[in-house]
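Hi all, long-time lurker, first post. I run a small reading group and we've been trying to get comfortable going from sequence to structure in the token notation. Rather than ask abstract questions, I figured I'd post a concrete chain and ask someone more experienced to write out its structure so we can walk through it together at our next meeting. Sequence below, copied exactly:
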Amino acid sequence: MFYLKELELTDEEKFTKFITRYKEECKDESIPISLNKENLPFSEFFKKLQLLSSLETCPKGFVPSKYFLIMVDDSIVGEIHLRYMSNDFILNFAGHVGYGIAPWERRKGYATRALKKLMIIAKDMKLERLLLTTDEDNVASQKVIVSCGGRYEKSNQGKRHYWIDLGEWILEESAMAIVFYKDEILATKENVYGNCVLSCPKGHVEDRETHIETAIRECFEETNVSLTLADYKKELNPYIIKFVDHHNQFIQKIIYPICFHIKEKGRPLAKEERILSVEFMKISKFLEDCSYDNVRQMVGMCFR
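-- Answer (accepted) --
Happy to help. Here is the structure in token form:
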């Protein structure tokens, strides 16, 4: 389970172990200030973050920021923070977003997933665009930014500047339940703007829900098939779709595919008006008839 979490006082032991290992494995690599580069006692570091979280308490020369641990299950894999106001330092050098992924957790897509979640937080805060900067030779970070919609603007003082526009698009999160029973998959036929499409059950992530909880809830609400945490197998990397809805709004939706394997089919039943039919069908047939290439790809990845 992947999620962002605000640092709490109760995280001291876990955070301290993470930072210690991070610094040991980074060796000559520059340590971000947000990962306690100054080696402050945890209580002082936590207090510093609290002061930075509000404009009223933010030290002179700084801008307020939100700080999050990047979590996978119960383990810290990195941090990401949003500086949600600007000054000359932000616009000319630092940018609005910073993050650090543990050396042992890199090349797993965590930075991209964290940035996508932070974009939604920024959008909810009424921010219209974000500036992100990377070192000229940091190709990995540049790929993360571009994959999240970043557009290169210029290079300045050894930094490449990218802007992510949040104003035009409405950002949404959904979770998809990819449910297998032996050699069959749970499929839905759905009315999408007058077209019948074959796919898997999915729906919006509600406040404080994990992606797994959303997938379980949406599966039951749409298909009458009950899932439990015991049926969960793995969460795949999310993908983004963009479209214009029937209100002519520009939607950018991040979809989190969750794989489940069940031992009993239950009683599949279309429970929502837009769902035309629900059935378990042969996986091979689903892969032939599925309406979306990205869903077809996700189903295939469940077996890797």
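A couple of things your group might point at:
The mean pLDDT is 90.
Residues 51 and 174 are 33 Å apart (CA to CA).
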